[in-house]
């Protein structure tokens, strides 16, 4: 669908009055429906003064790994920020997508309704199609990614191999510690990092390039620099997955892809509320050893990572083709990073 020029002009005026914000806000497009927002995206290439030129038009963003802990936090935040984003989620199954439905997302019209609408259109009658927010796909099968990436402005990659602890391993490790022995618990991967963090990530980058996506934000990990990414790194030892090796390879592939990118390297991810700590940024793994000198910890809440992701998509020009690390100070230490601080943080990056 396409919006009348008069409506576009109103959106431009409304958008120009708004300052940068990560707070949930009502979108001027909300009452018009998501299908109309996608109609805006489809016009961007053809219109001489298209919606991409207008301040206030939300960006269409696909979040992959949207039911993982960090991906879900990111999807949820962007869903709330409907003035800024039309967010879509990629999931592996309909069952997984139910998590996103609870946030108000939709799989779109059923096959039965789509067939009925098609018949109505052939009769010249108007239809009101419900466009999907949730797409089912598999990152190791690139062919399943194209529908979700159509008309997207940005791709946020939150997929990652996840090490899991084998049964009884925790008890064995505690017992070893009690008798004075050091023992690394044994982990395993349901999908090895080579498949997820390299092949799957590569597929997403290739699919994004084919779809004409303008910005890719990759949530990676600290520890990928050559000095830290060694065989002795505990993360590489987990489950024999060499996870940092494959993450580093995917990062290099993204940098060489020709796409505009932003790579975020979180420290240890914790399940604590966001917006309650001071966020500290760095580069090149300097925070792995120097976090104490900055008054920080090695950890950061997932919700704060999601806030950084949203800010990176919104402030693309400040973080285009940059990589940075992020950790946080302990609650009560330093000054809580507020909404208006993200631009300043990004401007200080080398």
What keywords describe this structure?
single chain; 350 residues; alpha/beta; two-stranded antiparallel sheet; 38% helix; disordered N terminus
Mean pLDDT: 84
Distance from first to last alpha carbon: 42 Å
Approximately how much helix is present in the residues? 25-40%
Strand order of the largest sheet: 3-2-1-4-7-8-12-10
Question: Which helices and strands appear, and what pairs or packs with what?
Answer:
Elements: H1 5-16, H2 34-42, E1 59-64, H3 69-80, E2 85-91, H4 94-101, H5 111-122, E3 134-136, H6 146-149, E4 154-157, E5 163-165, H7 169-178, E6 187-189, H8 193-211, E7 215-219, H9 234-237, H10 243-255, E8 261-266, E9 268-270, E10 279-282, H11 286-290, E11 299-301, H12 302-314, H13 316-319, E12 322-328, H14 341-347
Parallel strand pairs: 1-2, 1-4, 2-3, 4-7, 7-8, 8-12, 9-11
Antiparallel strand pairs: 5-6, 10-12
Helix pairs in contact: 3-12, 8-10
Plain-language structure description:
The chain is an alpha/beta fold. Helix content is 38%, strand content 15%. The protein contains 14 helices and twelve strands. The strands form three sheets. The chain has an eight-stranded mixed beta sheet with strand order 3-2-1-4-7-8-12-10, with helices on both faces. Strands 5-6 form a two-stranded antiparallel sheet. It has a two-stranded parallel ribbon with strand order 9-11. Helix 3 crosses helix 12 and helix 8 runs parallel beside helix 10. The chain is globular, with a radius of gyration of 22 Å. The two termini are 42 Å apart. The N terminus is likely disordered.
């Amino acid at each position: 669908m396409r919006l009348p020029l008069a409506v576009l002009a109103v959106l431009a005026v409304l958008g120009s009055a708004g300052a940068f914000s990560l707070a949930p806000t009502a979108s001027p497009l909300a009452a018009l429906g998501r299908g109309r927002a996608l109609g805006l995206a489809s016009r961007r290439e053809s219109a001489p003064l298209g919606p991409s030129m207008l301040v206030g038009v939300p960006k269409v963003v696909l979040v992959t790994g949207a039911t993982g802990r960090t991906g879900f936090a990111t999807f949820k935040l962007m869903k709330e920020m409907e003035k800024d984003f039309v967010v879509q989620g990629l999931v592996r199954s309909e069952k997984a997508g139910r998590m996103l439905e609870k946030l108000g997302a939709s799989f779109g019209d059923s096959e039965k309704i789509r067939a009925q609408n098609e018949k109505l259109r052939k009769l010249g009658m108007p239809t009101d199609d419900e466009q999907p927010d949730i797409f089912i796909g598999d990152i190791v099968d690139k062919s399943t990614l194209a529908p979700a990436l159509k008309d997207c402005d940005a791709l946020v990659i939150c997929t990652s191999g996840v090490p899991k602890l084998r049964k009884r391993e925790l008890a064995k490790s505690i017992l070893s510690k009690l008798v004075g022995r050091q023992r690394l618990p044994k982990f395993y991967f349901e999908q090895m990092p080579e498949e997820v963090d390299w092949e799957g990530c590569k597929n997403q980058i290739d699919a994004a390039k084919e779809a004409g996506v303008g910005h890719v934000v990759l949530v990676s990990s600290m520890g990928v620099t050559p000095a830290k990414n060694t065989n002795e790194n505990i993360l590489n030892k987990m489950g024999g997955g060499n996870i940092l090796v494959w993450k580093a390879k995917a990062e290099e592939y993204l940098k060489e892809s020709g796409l505009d990118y932003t790579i975020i390297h979180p420290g240890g991810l914790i399940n604590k509320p966001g917006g309650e700590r001071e966020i500290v940024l760095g580069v090149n793994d300097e925070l792995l050893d120097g976090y104490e000198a900055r008054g920080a910890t090695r950890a950061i809440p997932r919700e704060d990572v999601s806030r950084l992701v949203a800010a990176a998509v919104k402030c693309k020009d400040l973080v285009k083709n940059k990589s940075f690390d992020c950790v946080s100070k302990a609650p009560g230490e330093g000054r809580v990073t507020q909404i208006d601080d993200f631009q300043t943080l990004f401007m200080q990056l080398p």
